[in-house]
Design a protein that fits this description.
The chain is of the alpha+beta class. The protein has helices spanning about 75-80, 100-110, 155, 210-215, 220-230, 240-265, 280-295, 300-305, and strands spanning about 15-25, 35, 45-55, 60-70, 90-95, 115-120, 140-150, 160-165, 175-190, 195-200, 275-280, 310. The strands form two sheets. Strands 1, 2, 3, 4, 5, 6, 7, 8, 9 and 10 form a ten-stranded mixed beta sheet that branches.
Length: about 325
């Protein structure tokens, strides 16, 4: 473990991602706090929502928050977790469209934390930028606006002001106004669709390709959720009681950090004679790392070397069902 490095950075910045994932629980209709239905009139299932703040370069969770299935507020979880970032002025937080709101921009700016947020495209009626009259093409431009709820004519006629309705629930007004400065980047994907990002990173040091690369790193938290659920068996529980379930989730998050740090001690195998470089297969190495943790096996390096997989950065797989209503695995299915 002395070989573990916790100071990996990207262009001198720490990279973090914030996201959430639904964890399905054993069915318990009597627990109304976690019991939800996918559609009215259908059979209910139980779930909770795990929100996490993930260090993308060091591959560890630094904070988490668990919400009940009937109360899933990812943005509120971000407000609670973001202050735990050790050095916000030298950190960049990435998040997907579920966090792309003026509240998030204002909150991260108040923490002096840099951000790269994906937002709904400017053509969407629910996008925060649909009123700014931005061009329907690729662009990279700065935005300097003043938010207010005042309906006075002088603000309606001034393009520097953006009038929000009270339902927007913007929380960072100062005497009824809030000045926001950020950069909007819109580029065309190979699929023919546009992707829109907002950031406060300077254009000189972070051109378009670097901004796109930073957001691409965000997928690391999605991969961590996959390992958490299926490599560390977060689809199996030993209890139906909420407090014991939470205890198991916390234990698996901690064990993920241990396994991830141990796996990082194994260097990548990069041979110029081979087509790809090879990395540790996290899923296949879980058993080996667990044996090392419990029994201190002295042959862990040689055993893990048998579980190296080629690293193919351009490979992609279609995303599965985001709203899976299946319950956790039954207690007798183990």
């Amino acid at each position: 473990m002395s070989q573990v490095k916790l100071n990996s950075h990207f262009h001198g910045y720490s990279l973090y991602a914030c996201d959430g994932s639904t964890v399905n629980l054993p069915r318990n209709p009597d627990d109304q706090t976690t019991s939800v239905s996918a559609k009215p009139g259908t059979k209910s299932y139980n779930c909770i929502h795990l929100n996490a703040l993930f260090d993308l370069m060091n591959q560890v969770y630094i904070d988490y928050k668990i919400d009940l299935g009937t109360h899933m507020k990812e943005i509120d979880a971000l407000y609670e977790m973001a202050p735990s970032i050790p050095d916000p002025e030298h950190s960049i937080l990435t998040a997907d469209r579920g966090y792309g709101y003026f509240n998030t921009i204002a909150f991260l700016s108040s923490l002096h934390c840099h951000f790269v947020l994906r937002i709904k495209d400017i053509c969407a009626a629910t996008s925060i930028l649909c009123q700014l009259k931005l061009p329907d093409c690729e662009f990279d431009r700065d935005v300097d606006i003043v938010l207010t709820e005042s309906q006075k004519k002088q603000y309606r006629d001034d393009p520097r002001y953006l009038i929000l309705c009270k339902k927007s629930n913007f929380k960072f007004y100062d005497n009824g106004f809030a000045n926001l400065r950020f950069r909007v980047v819109r580029f065309l994907l190979p699929s023919g669709e546009y992707e829109t990002l907002v950031t406060d990173l300077p254009r000189v040091d972070f051109p378009l390709d670097i901004i796109s690369q930073i957001y691409h790193f965000r997928w690391g938290i999605e991969t961590s959720f996959k390992h958490l659920k299926y490599s560390l068996n977060l689809v199996f529980f030993h209890s139906k009681q909420y407090h014991f379930v939470v205890q198991e989730i916390i234990a698996r998050v901690l064990m993920f950090n241990v396994y991830s740090l141990m796996a990082q001690t194994i260097p990548e195998h990069d041979d110029p004679k081979l087509k790809y470089s090879y990395r540790v297969n996290f899923h296949a190495s879980i058993g080996t790392l667990r044996d090392f943790f419990l029994f201190g096996s002295s042959h862990i390096l040689y055993r893990i070397l048998y579980n190296m997989n080629p690293f193919r950065p351009d490979r992609s797989v279609p995303r599965g069902n985001l709203h899976d209503s299946k319950p956790a695995k039954a207690f007798n299915y183990r």
